[in-house]
């Protein structure tokens, strides 16, 4: 037995002995622990069934920690005692480590998760952006920020935010609107109710999201006699609502009348493990399937009924069908504006919202089925009971044939766009780079996970990435958070170390948050990071001009500058300084060669390539509502406002009158994508 194991064994023996005889008296069935020790022990005891159902594994894959005076003594000591069964991972930025934890849960389809602990003050508030991201994306993460002293004896402590009107308020109260459950632990005994409540939220399909337990630093260190049974290993149950008979009946009645149905597959399909049920249901009834960002990968890219991405970043196939559908089955999606084209798609359709959370299901005036996606699909097609009446129902055969033809045509277009010949004098654009990345994985495309979050890339990936398996496509677009990419890639790799994780990131997002490259090297969690350098915020620069604005403060060349001008940033040199291997590719051919070296590398490998900030995929897309100023001295802004007013007026017209309802399938191609 090595020295570390001997020390750890002595620590455990000491802890157990102390628990049994505090104050000279033995207390049957209790164990004396600090609040922090009890919390960590409880987390370590939670188990989850393995994917094959043959065993169990820890529910919490670990705890990301950046220590400070608000958590190093209490939580730090507790985590040290349990470092073998609940690994502690050090990061370089609090927001980034929370992103990594969230990505870990997303890759596990919400069946495993991580916790995050910080000090008080900036350490805690750095988590707020990540908390909002998890809230919007309905993803579980346990946030454990340090808090001020409950005793208030040393107030104000270092980094304390004082409220002039409420002495009970701290900076951590800012977590309340971005948490699904919030609690401040002011006494150790409170854990007996707070932790089960937190776990229920984290494992409930309807309420899933971030949980924040604020931990005052004096309470972290306070001891109490906890019931020993509280820490017994437990296999958690994941909660998802079964459909109500009456809601299923109404959905069947509406579907039976539909001739031109369309399924919109959202993230709930993946989290509900409903991909096989979706494929069977769509094939049995001839229903085309369009995918949201969160739902991409619900069907294999080459499934005959997969018509591709939907909405503002959508394919011409999906958008043409959405425009003409008479019934939309919104499956596990909250129907945000990028999916609905700011509520200008589905203008002729009734919407059935199948969602574990009725709040999400009610979007777009939908008829709601409050249920888990897989359970709802099974109920709709049940061989007995109310679902049996769908067994002989099929979409109009011409509609199904049209959908399959449009889907096949779009697959051909995607191949053409991602295999375009390159000219030395022309900078590549995102579609060229996506093609190169996919070609580099020709031997094992199903094993790659692509990670992205913000800018132009999510639009291009949504259209062009070929997701062969559920989970192969990992794009955070609920919050569209710049800086998520590399940190999210780290979380994905920790969740699936056997798979190649490819992070595609723009230069703007890279500069916002890149520190977890160093963490990935330290942990041996290899990433392939492709940096597309268009010298600024190319996506918003195009949106700015589409709204009539002049290029201003987005691309580096259009920003206020000092005498030295805008810097030329060597991303490869920077990545090497963080411990990664890195190189710059001058063109797509060099990128493909670099990707092969990256795949063979033993550590994180960063490849940068210059790209065109103006060029995008013009096929597909749809209108997106971005308010344009009513008053401007610039003619271009006034013209953009006139177009905006026309689009708003068209949205208010009866079904079939709006401009989007023109007669050909190809008219949507001219809309482009502002994203």
Structural overview:
- With 675 residues, the chain is of the alpha/beta class.
- The chain has three domains: 214 residues, Thiamin diphosphate (ThDP)-binding fold, Pyr/PP domains (Rossmann fold, 3-Layer(aba) Sandwich); 163 residues, Rossmann fold (3-Layer(aba) Sandwich); 183 residues, Rossmann fold (3-Layer(aba) Sandwich), CATH 3.40.50.
- β2 and β3 form a beta hairpin.
- α17 packs parallel to α24.
- The longest helix has 22 residues.
- The C terminus is likely disordered.
Keywords summarizing the entry:
globular; six-stranded parallel beta sheet; 675 residues; Rossmann fold; alpha/beta; 3 domains; 25 helices
How is the biggest beta sheet arranged?
A: 6 strands, parallel
Reading off the top of the CATH hierarchy, the class of the largest domain is best stated as Alpha Beta
CATH topology heading of the largest domain: Rossmann fold
Strand count: 23
* CATH architecture field of the largest domain: 3-Layer(aba) Sandwich
Low-confidence stretches: 8-26, 654-675
The fraction of residues in strands falls at: 15-25%
Report the span from N to C terminus.
58 Å
**Quick one: CATH superfamily of the largest domain?**
Thiamin diphosphate (ThDP)-binding fold, Pyr/PP domains
Provide the residue-averaged pLDDT: 91
User: Assembly state here?
Assistant: single chain
Shape: globular
Number of helices: 25
Record the strand order, biggest sheet: 5-4-6-7-9-8
Backbone structural class: alpha/beta
Radius of gyration: 26 Å
Percent helix, as a range, is 25-40%
Domain count, please report it: 3
């Amino acid at each position: 037995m090595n020295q570390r194991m001997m020390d750890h064994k002595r620590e455990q023996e000491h802890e157990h002995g102390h628990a049994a005889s505090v104050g000279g008296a033995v207390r049957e069935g209790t164990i004396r622990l600090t609040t922090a020790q009890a919390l960590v022990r409880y987390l370590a005891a939670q188990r989850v069934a393995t994917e094959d159902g043959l065993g169990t594994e820890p529910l919490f894959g670990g705890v990301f920690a950046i220590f400070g005076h608000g958590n190093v003594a209490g939580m730090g000591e507790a985590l040290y005692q349990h470092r073998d069964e609940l690994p502690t991972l050090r990061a370089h930025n609090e927001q980034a480590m929370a992103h990594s934890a969230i990505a870990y849960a997303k890759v596990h389809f919400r069946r495993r998760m991580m916790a995050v602990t910080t000090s008080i003050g900036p350490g805690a508030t750095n988590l707020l952006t990540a908390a909002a991201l998890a809230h919007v994306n309905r993803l579980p993460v346990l946030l454990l920020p340090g808090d001020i002293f409950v005793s208030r004896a040393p107030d104000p402590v270092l980094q304390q935010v004082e409220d002039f009107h409420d002495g009970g308020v701290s900076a951590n109260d800012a977590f309340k609107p971005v948490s699904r459950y919030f609690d401040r632990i002011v006494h150790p005994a409170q854990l007996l109710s707070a932790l089960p409540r937190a776990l229920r939220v984290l494992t409930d399909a309807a309420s899933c999201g971030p949980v924040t337990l604020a931990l005052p630093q004096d309470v972290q260190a306070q001891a109490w006699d906890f019931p020993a049974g509280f820490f017994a290993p437990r296999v958690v149950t994941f909660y998802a609502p079964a459909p109500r008979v009456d809601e299923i009946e109404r959905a069947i009645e509406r579907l039976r009348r539909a001739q031109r149905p369309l399924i919109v597959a959202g993230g709930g399909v993946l989290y509900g493990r409903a991909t096989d049920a979706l494929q069977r249901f769509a094939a049995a009834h001839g229903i085309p399937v369009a995918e949201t960002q969160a739902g991409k990968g619900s069907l294999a890219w080459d499934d005959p009924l997969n018509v591709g991405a939907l909405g503002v970043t959508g394919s011409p196939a999906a958008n043409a069908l959405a425009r003409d559908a008479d019934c939309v089955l919104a499956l596990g999606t909250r129907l945000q504006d990028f999916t609905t084209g700011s509520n200008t798609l589905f203008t002729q359709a009734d919407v059935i919202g199948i969602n574990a959370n009725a709040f999400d299901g009610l979007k777009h005036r939908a008829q709601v089925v409050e249920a888990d996606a897989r359970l709802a699909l099974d109920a709709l097609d049940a061989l007995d009971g109310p679902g049996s009446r769908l067994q002989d129902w099929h979409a109009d055969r011409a509609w199904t044939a049209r959908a399959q033809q449009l889907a096949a045509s779009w697959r051909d277009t995607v191949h053409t766009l991602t295999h375009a010949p390159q000219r030395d004098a022309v900078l590549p654009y995102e579609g060229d780079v996506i093609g190169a990345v996919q070609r580099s994985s020709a031997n094992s495309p199903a094993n790659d996970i692509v990670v992205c979050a913000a800018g132009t890339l999510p639009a291009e990936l949504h259209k062009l990435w070929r997701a062969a398996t559920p989970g192969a496509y990992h794009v955070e677009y609920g919050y569209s958070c710049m800086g998520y990419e590399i940190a999210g890639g780290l979380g994905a790799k920790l969740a699936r170390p056997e798979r190649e994780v490819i992070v595609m990131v723009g230069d703007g997002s890279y500069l916002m948050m890149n520190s977890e490259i160093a963490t990935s090297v330290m942990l041996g969690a290899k990433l392939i990071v492709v940096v597309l350098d268009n010298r600024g915020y190319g996506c918003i620069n195009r949106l700015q001009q589409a709204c009539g604005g002049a290029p201003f403060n987005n691309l580096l060349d259009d920003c206020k500058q000092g005498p030295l001008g805008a810097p030329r940033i060597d991303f490869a040199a920077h990545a090497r300084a963080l411990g990664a291997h890195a190189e710059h590719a001058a063109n797509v051919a060099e990128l493909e060669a670099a990707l092969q070296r990256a795949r063979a590398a033993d550590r994180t490998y960063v490849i940068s390539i210059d790209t065109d900030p103006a060029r995008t995929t013009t096929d597909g897309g749809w209108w997106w509502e971005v308010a344009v100023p009513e008053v401007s001295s610039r003619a271009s802004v006034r013209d953009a406002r006139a177009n905006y007013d026309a689009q708003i007026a068209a949205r208010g017209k009866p079904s079939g009158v709006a401009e989007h309802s023109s007669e050909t399938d190809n008219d949507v191609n001219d809309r482009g994508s502002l994203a």
